[in-house]
Amino acid sequence: MRLSRSGYSAPLSGQACRLWPRSCSTGIIGKDTRDRRKKNVNGDPRVLRELDGYLSFELTGHRQYLLHAATCRHWGFSRLADVQHDYSTEETTHAGRIMARILLLGGTPSMKSRRAVDARDTVAGQLDYDRELVRQAIDHLRAAIGLCEQCSDFVSRDLLATMLDDEELHLDWLDKQLGLIDKVGLQDYLQAQM
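The structure corresponding to this sequence follows.
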């Protein structure tokens, strides 16, 4: 007999496992019959290549947005720096999820960047540079999603589709910022970013 969660004693039986299945699965009651080790699933090499290719965009984006955030903060544009830093953090999260998927599929993530990250000397130059990277990432994602469909890897497809949504929102934000610079002028835009 053992005290139950309500304070009454109950026998260790199948009934206890039905009432508190977590107790059974953790080995408190009975033997844990589930295999807790994750097994690698062999992924299609083409899907692995696409995932690794998108990982390079994420790693490049992380470094690029981090540099732009630091530069904007140095110039005194703290609002813009905070947004750039948030995008850098988002890229890091995406990269972690992509690496986990590559490893699960039996691949090895390559940690190479898409291109060298160069400092831009103006805010407009930074935004335009970011927009170029995001557009390339969107093109890559659309092709990769199609390939995942062909290979019946629907988990990778769904993962990339959520990242496509984030990239499209980022592109929309960049287009709005560049549009604001055109509408109100660079000086008024920068004043609003302080």
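The first strand starts at residue 2 and ends at 3.
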